[in-house]
Amino acid sequence: MQVQVVQADITTLEVHAIVNAANSRLAGGGGVDGAIHAAAGHGLMQACRELGGCPTGEARITPAFDLPARFVIHTVGPVWVDGLRGEPDLLRNCYRSSMALAARHGCESVAFSAISCGVYGYPVEQAARIAVDEVLGTPSGDGIPSRVLLVCFAEPTLGIYRRVLAERQTT
Ligand code: APR
After folding, report:
1. How far is CA 148 from CA 18, 111, 134, in A?
2. List of E strands, the chain
3. CB 3.0-4.6 Å disulfide test: which of 3, 19, 30, 31 passes with 112?
4. From 153, 158, 160, 164, mutation site for ligand 1 pocket: most ligand atoms within 8 A of C-beta
């Protein structure tokens, strides 16, 4: 599996699936969620409504409507409190569930946003370690994506993700 950190607006990427940092009501919001809904059009909100929400740490999949991607995987990251309320396990589950859904839907390429790294306040370096470890640790099996992009919108997130991936690849 090829894993890369890239700087991009995730709504522009031509990949099989993009992973949205959603909320548990799948009700849309600001940040990357707002950008994805704005670019995908009204169909995405309708599809999300029909799903009836998603618990923290889990993921759901919808078509991507007007986006260049084929699917949107909506995962709900934890709100960071102090790191002692299960936040790391919940964030790990976001990556695991999203990779499993991508595999089940035959997605060869998947682009993740930096789940929980915005308004949910997860310390970026810790979140980046979880993202990199979970993606690289995906058990091999039928249909697992061959290309995974970890998408950062801007610094300092980009630099932190790049360093964490480089460290992991040299150990
Ligand atoms: N493309 C890629 N990344 C983006 C984009 C974009 N267009 N817009 C923002 N980001 C980045 C942010 O810079 C941040 O690093 O996505 C990361 C995640 O930030 P948030 O979108 O704030 O997500 P999160 O911290 O998980 O909070 C989720 O925000 O909007 C609400 O409905 C959403 O309630 C949920 C909460």
Report:
1. 10, 6, 11
2. 2-7, 17-22, 59-63, 71-76, 109-112, 147-152
3. 19
4. 153
| Interval between CA 114 and ligand 1 midpoint (Å) | 7
Residue-range definition of the domain harbouring residue 67: 2-170
Counting the structural domains of the chain, the total is 1
Q: What is the CATH number of the domain that holds 87?
A: 3.40.220.10
Residue nearest to atom 21 of ligand 1 (CA): 31
Name every protein residue with a CB atom under 6 angstroms from any ligand 1 atom.
9-11, 21-23, 29-35, 77, 113-120, 151, 153-154, 157
Does this model's pTM top 0.90? My answer is: yes
1-52 per-position pLDDT tens digit: 999 999 999 999 999 999 999 999 999 999 999 999 999 999 999 999 999 9
The pair of three-digit structure tokens given for residue 54, joined into one six-digit string: 């998603």
